[in-house]
Design a protein that fits this description.
With 556 residues, the chain is an alpha/beta fold. The protein is 34% helix and 17% strand. The strands form three sheets. Strands 8-9-12-13-14-15-16-17 form an eight-stranded parallel β-barrel, surrounded by seven helices. The chain has a seven-stranded mixed beta sheet with strand order 1-7-5-6-4-2-3, covered by helices on one side. A two-stranded antiparallel sheet has the order 10-11. Helix 4 packs parallel to helix 5. It starts with 6 loop residues before the first helix and ends in a 13-residue tail after the last helix. It binds ligand TNX. The site of ligand TNX has 10 residues, from loops.
Length: 556
């Protein structure tokens, strides 16, 4: 039996009953009181809704009808001496403190604390899974690895009312519905790419991006660090790349670049949120910002620009021998290339990837490889094969867009499917691992529909249901599902200038991709997703996110 009302109500009821004289009534009253005490308080409708609106949809979630209430002296405890768990607890405490104004203490080894984060051994939870148990007394998050603890805390955030996202004080109460959630991801690669080359985004914007994706349990941030329009990472042995190559952007703005120190800061911020940074230097095409910075990379032969890539603004930009090209601020693709016959090209690539490897703790380097339309096919193959050796030489694994399938690739290589099924299947046939980024489904730079202002539309119009309704396991036929690492949603930035623009194109599609990467197909359902998303809209407003109010979502 359950009932509403606090302890004060129960006590007054008891006094009333005791005031009555009959013995029988007294016996009855004691029985009634015991029953009342064993009753739990019911969760508020808000807490129930939160429990039912988690994104990505958890593998299993059972609500139990009671309520846990956060108090000003609530304590979060972790295993003694566990630094990573303490760092996660610290992030959780910071999140809970701002809106509640509560103190929230951190302790070690206090098994009676209000929140306990515990590393356990539970083979059913895998590397990233967690169990979140909420009783009226205590919240326990257990996981095999810290990543799981972190994801448990992100789910817990969602269980509180959206007011918890406030950075200024809000009135409580701060309730969570009781229950048990047992959850783990279906794919290990749940990523998003941010193009910081076409338009540059500073460290604070990138940190926001990491906040957004990690809140929805995505674990990969692919940074597109170079393109025709801009070079965005300091390379100490080739300083002009960032200094000159980073000095502009699409439309002619002032551009910018990350110093290696700033890049390390981004990487560390991401790592604390269990996000691995994958840096991309786009090669051998999309390379004008380097060709404009170092004349010695230019000269030699190139095949002419043709087809849809013909554009007068790029003509005469193919690079005279040993002369730097002009910086470029347009949005054409596929017209620049490194020269295979110049050994400088490979010294350049090795120096750049070497410096990048040294400041990238993650196991991967992305070498681009897309749209090299003015690189002769045989040269392209030579490039990919040599890049593979260079990346290996720097003790990293190579990732590249699907076109790299033309090179001698194997099971140590990761190919990113974006448009051409033939290349993606060729990569899979050669044993490579595959990341699914189908441009018709998850290109976040595509417009939602013909009326939305931002974005391009060459691949598709991508409304929220289009971004949601597809399956990485079946989007490429004849590929062994064991080779599929997961999903990644790229945000190219030709039309994206501000953080508001980023938010508009990300939400509500990024959460669709997050759910596709995390939740097994059986747990994915558009009708459920759209209702849960409709509720997250309120949370996004509190978070200051300028999302697209898609007409396909029933916003609350
Ligand atoms: C294609 S997808 C590109 C990018 C553009 C994007 C615009 C891919 C590997 N290359 O260079 O920015 O289209 O949507």
């Amino acid at each position: 039996m359950c009932c509403e009302g606090g302890n004060a109500d129960r006590l007054s009821l008891l006094f009333l009953i005791l005031a009555m004289s009959s013995r029988l009534l007294k016996v009855l009253s004691v029985f009634l009181f015991i029953t009342l005490l064993s009753c739990q308080q019911e969760p508020s409708p808000d807490a129930v809704k939160s429990f039912e609106s988690i994104i990505p949809n958890p593998a299993s979630a059972q609500m139990e009808g009671g309520v846990f209430t956060l108090e000003t002296e609530s304590i979060i405890s972790v295993d003694p001496g566990h630094k990573e768990a303490m760092a996660i607890a610290t992030l959780l405490a910071e999140k809970l403190r701002s809106a509640t104004g509560y103190e929230i203490k951190l302790e070690e080894g206090n098994i009676d604390a209000d929140f306990v984060l515990a590393i356990v051994t539970d083979p059913t939870l895998g590397e990233e899974g967690y169990e979140l148990k909420v009783t009226s007394e205590q919240v326990t998050i257990s996981a095999n690895k810290p990543a799981g603890l972190f994801y448990g805390t992100q789910t817990l955030r969602q269980l509180f009312s959206d007011k918890i996202e406030n950075s200024v004080f809000q009135q409580g109460p701060w309730e969570v519905a009781t229950g048990v959630i047992k959850d783990l991801p279906s794919y290990s690669w749940r990523g998003s790419m941010l193009d910081v080359a076409r338009h540059f985004f500073g460290v604070e914007d990138v940190k926001k991006y990491i906040d957004y994706i990690s809140f929805y349990k995505m674990n990969i941030l692919h940074l597109h660090l170079s393109d025709d329009q801009g070079w965005r990472i300091e390379i100490k042995s080739w300083p002009n790349l960032a200094k000159h190559g980073g000095s502009t952007q699409v439309g002619g703005g002032k551009g910018g670049y990350y110093t290696q120190e700033q890049y390390r800061d981004i990487v560390a911020y991401a790592a604390a949120r269990y996000v691995t940074v994958i840096p991309e230097i786009d090669l051998p095409g999309h390379i004008n910002s380097a060709l404009a910075s170092y004349g010695e990379l230019n000269g030699g032969t190139v095949v002419p620009i043709e087809g849809r890539y013909t554009d007068t603004s790029t003509q005469g930009m193919l690079g005279e021998r040993s002369k730097p090209t002009e910086l470029y601020t347009g949005i054409q693709v596929g017209w620049s290339t490194l020269r295979v016959e110049k050994e400088e090209s490979f010294k350049f690539v090795s120096d750049v990837l070497g410096e990048l490897a040294a400041i990238t703790p993650g196991p991967y380097l992305h070498i681009g490889g897309d749209e090299a339309h003015v690189t002769a096919k045989k040269d392209y193959i030579t490039f990919i094969n040599r890049f593979k050796d260079i990346v290996k030489g720097h003790n990293k694994m190579m990732v590249g867009w699907e076109e790299i399938a033309q090179g001698e690739i194997d099971s140590t290589i990761v190919a990113q499917y974006w448009a051409n099924e033939k290349y993606a299947r060729m990569a899979a046939d050669k044993g490579a691992k595959i990341i699914m980024s189908p441009s018709k489904k998850v290109y976040l730079d595509m417009k939602y529909d013909s009326t939305t202002k931002l974005g391009l539309n060459w691949a598709n119009y991508i409304e929220t249901d289009t971004a949601y309704n597809w399956d990485p396991a079946t989007c490429l036929s004849d590929v062994d599902t064991r080779q599929i690492l997961g999903v990644e949603a790229p945000l190219w930035s030709e039309t994206v200038v501000t953080l508001d623009d980023i938010e508009f194109l990300l939400f509500p599609r990024i959460t669709a991709v997050a759910e596709i990467g995390w939740t097994p197909a059986a747990g994915r359902n558009w009708d459920s997703y759209k209702i849960r998303t409709g509720r997250h809209g309120k949370r996004w407003k509190v978070m200051g996110i300028d999302f697209y109010a898609s007409p396909r979502i029933p916003w609350e």
